[in-house]
Design a protein that fits this description.
6-stranded mixed sheet, 3 helices, Immunoglobulin-like, 2 domains
Length: 261
């Protein structure tokens, strides 16, 4: 979310008729509202202040067209140096980018741009679908390990070493020519910032050891489903950076999943 500018002021009149008193001046802060990304069918409120920076009485009404609305403070009558807060709401009903002008009446009208973007939010995760691998047991030598081939469709890809040292492969993060090293908290923050949360991929290298692998997977499942991801894929890799074509691992055991929920 971004607040645009500080104040915009419009002089309504230079002087109150029949006197030497200065006329009202409409001053608005901030000079624009950007609601950022909001889910379709949801709402977000931002505050805006209208002030009489002159004399006399500044009287009028603030109006704006859908999908924006004024939910509090639309009418104002302000003496010199008085101010009033307005609550502006963005309630998109369809995906896309919306832009309108918030209009302040009274004397010379003032306008403030308001913008926002809308996406359809992901449905609740429910029971996450965790992709596993075909059995690779020695008694079934014909079985083949499944390979991952959906890199482009993934919304978030993390390469897990330890909680303190890991990589974000998608979205790409770069420090100069090197990929950024992230801790777990930052990886989860990045995962939560993605507008689409259908598929998350966690690449496990030779860490963690087998004894702790299920607990590591379960922790990722709990965190990523809590962020709204509907499908989680675990991959196995050494130190290679590529993802496409890596073996798909089993998800955490059902017993461990039940214990963690």
């Amino acid at each position: 979310m971004q607040l645009l500018g500080a104040w915009v002021a419009v002089a309504q009149t230079n002087q109150v008729a029949g006197s030497d008193q200065p006329g009202p001046v409409t001053a608005i802060s901030p000079s624009g509202l950007d609601f950022g990304l909001v889910g379709v069918g949801r709402t977000k409120d931002l505050l805006l202040t209208v002030k009489n920076a002159g004399g006399g009485t500044l009287a009028g009404t603030a109006t704006v067209s859908a999908p924006f609305s004024i939910v509090a403070g639309s009418n104002y009558s302000l003496g010199g140096n008085q101010s009033q807060r307005l609550t502006v709401r963005y309630g998109p009903t369809a995906e896309g980018t919306d832009s309108q002008l918030l209009v302040f009446s009274g004397g010379s009208a003032a306008t403030v741009p308001v913008t926002g973007s809308a996406r359809t939010p992901p449905p609740p995760p429910g029971s996450p679908r965790i992709t596993g691998t075909t059995s690779n047991h020695a008694s079934t030598p014909a079985a083949k390990t499944r390979k991952f081939a959906e890199e482009e469709e993934a919304d978030f890809i993390a390469r897990y070493y330890t909680d303190e040292v890991s990589y974000a492969l998608k979205p790409a993060m770069m420090d100069g020519v090197f990929r950024s090293i992230c801790d777990r908290a930052l990886l989860l923050k990045l995962a939560g910032q993605q507008p689409r949360r259908e598929l998350a991929v966690v690449v496990l290298i030779h860490y963690p050891v087998a004894e702790t692998e299920d607990a590591t997977k379960l922790a990722w499942v709990n965190d990523l489903t809590g962020l709204g991801y509907r499908r989680i894929v675990f991959l196995r890799s050494g130190n290679r950076m590529q993802v496409n074509g890596l073996p798909i691992l089993e998800g955490p055991p059902a017993a461990a999943m039940s214990a963690g929920q």
